Amino acid sequence: MLSLTVFLPLAAALVLSARRGLPDAAVRWLWVAVSAAELGLVAALWATYDGPGIGHETDRPWIPGAGAGYHIGVDGLSLPLLALTATVFLACAVYSLRDGRAQHGIRRFAALFLALETTCLGLFAALDLILFFLFFDLSIVGMYLVIAGWGHGEQAARSALKFFLYTFVGSLALLLGFIGLYAASDPHTFDITELTADPPLQGGGAAGPLVLLAIAVGLAVKTPTFPFHTWLPPAHTDAPAAGSAVLAAVLLKMGTYGFVRIAMPILPEDWRTYAMVFVAVGVVSVLYGALVALAQSDFKRMVAYTSVNHMGYILLALGAAGMVAGTDEAARSTAVTGAVVQMVSHGLITGALFLLAGVLMERGGTYEMDAWGGLAGPMPRFAALTAVAAFASLGLPGFSGFVAEFQIFAGSLGAVPVATALALLGILVTAGLFLWALHRLLLGVRREPRPVGADLRPAELLSVTPLLALSLLIGVLPRWLLDTVEPAARTVVDLVSR
């Protein structure tokens, strides 16, 4: 069933590519139907998962001479991200129903998004490094085409090229790291479970740090963290709303997931040695992302920089989990659990924020906050959902962001108290920037670049509301998610500690 889940969107994309005569309305509804079926399949995978450990596993020879196989499976780390992927892609499909004039080339656009969904699902299910790399690289191509083909503004092609070059160079570094792991393993293999069970670079030497550096750079570019983040703001600013939502909610998690799935368990000794470096990069990303976001006048660009901030919290937690000496194992497990929950939380909330930013562009042709004002009057539903998303993003209790950040800080405090205290300042700055943005957009004298015409349409409402409702559900009743994540987080901590 996992293979069906991964490749069903690709099959639908091929059908759409071949059927040139389909009406636009049929294309949109087929996209929604396939995305809804995907969410149902992921829900079935979750319901039938019998953890802890790898479930729904398929392991078949693929390139046996090179030690690579078609090996996929799920556990408490990947299941939440598979669910996040299916949810966000369904929200984007529903968002496409909002207006028949809103998207040119809808057949190619829908086919591209369905193919991109397969790359995301495949990466989170991959248990082979070459399979992981294949989906990692294909996702770069897919998002490049989305930004270049459907981005707005004169700089869309330039932003797409910058995104592609940065992330492709990062993927080459990642591949070098994977080859280093393969060369050091005995027998040679790219299988993640075998490399995790018998880490090939234990016992010191120069090779381990170099392999970790290559993998970390590749994943850091994708995440992105400071100073590898410079491709992110222009890519988000010029991407269509659905493209930005998928880029922030799903593609960025490929980097953070790679740290948890590959770097930490396969290179435990080197992760412990250089854990403080990851903590430092995480704290700098937290503070830098928040402060630069505060300085933005473009709403979408502001939200993009908050992603750097939120990804920094994840890296802080994962670095703290590597501080083994004199620290409590339960606290480090809490930090890793918080990091995974943060991946899900950020995806839901920031995905909603980017879809709402798309409403500003569609209604007024600009994201500049100074061009807007007093929108709470003519657009009360937009104002309400934007306010809810902003409060969720700044970590207000009752939303998923609070659950994630509370666990990150609680788990990291004992290991790195000074770094954790500095990172806490990021929450204060984030609160300030979102409140300031809400004041400029929603309150005060009414201003708009052109008449807004209408509040949120039904499709816009139905795409954004479930994302925020899920964030609220996790914030109020997190146990159903934590019961899945916590055993896998403890396993990661055990592997790092060996």
Topology:
Layout: H1 2-18, H2 24-48, E1 55-63, E2 68-74, H3 78-95, H4 106-125, H5 129-150, H6 156-184, H7 192-197, H8 207-222, H9 232-238, H10 241-266, H11 268-273, H12 275-294, H13 299-321, H14 329-364, H15 380-393, H16 400-413, H17 417-442, H18 458-476, H19 479-497
Antiparallel strand pairs: 1-2
Helix pairs in contact: 1-2, 1-4, 2-3, 2-4, 3-4, 3-10, 3-14, 3-18, 4-5, 5-6, 5-10, 6-8, 6-9, 8-10, 9-13, 10-13, 10-14, 10-19, 12-13, 12-17, 13-14, 13-16, 13-17, 14-15, 14-16, 14-18, 14-19, 15-17, 15-18, 16-18
Task: Provide a compact summary of the structure.
The chain is mainly alpha-helical. The chain has helices at 2-18, 24-48, 78-95, 106-125, 129-150, 156-184, 192-197, 207-222, 232-238, 241-266, 268-273, 275-294, 299-321, 329-364, 380-393, 400-413, 417-442, 458-476, 479-497; strands at residues 55-63, 68-74.
Cα shape:
globular
The oligomeric state is single chain
Helical residue percent band: over 70%
Instruction: Determine the structural class based on helices, strands and strand pairing.
Output: mainly alpha
Sequence of secondary-structure elements:
HHEEHHHHHHHHHHHHHHHHH
Total helices: the number is 19
- The largest beta-sheet arranges its strands as 1-2
Q: Would you write up a description of this structure?
A:
The chain is mainly alpha-helical. 73% of the residues lie in helices and 3% in strands. It has a two-stranded antiparallel ribbon with strand order 1-2. Helix 12 (275-294) packs parallel to helix 17 (417-442). It is globular, with a radius of gyration of 21 Å.
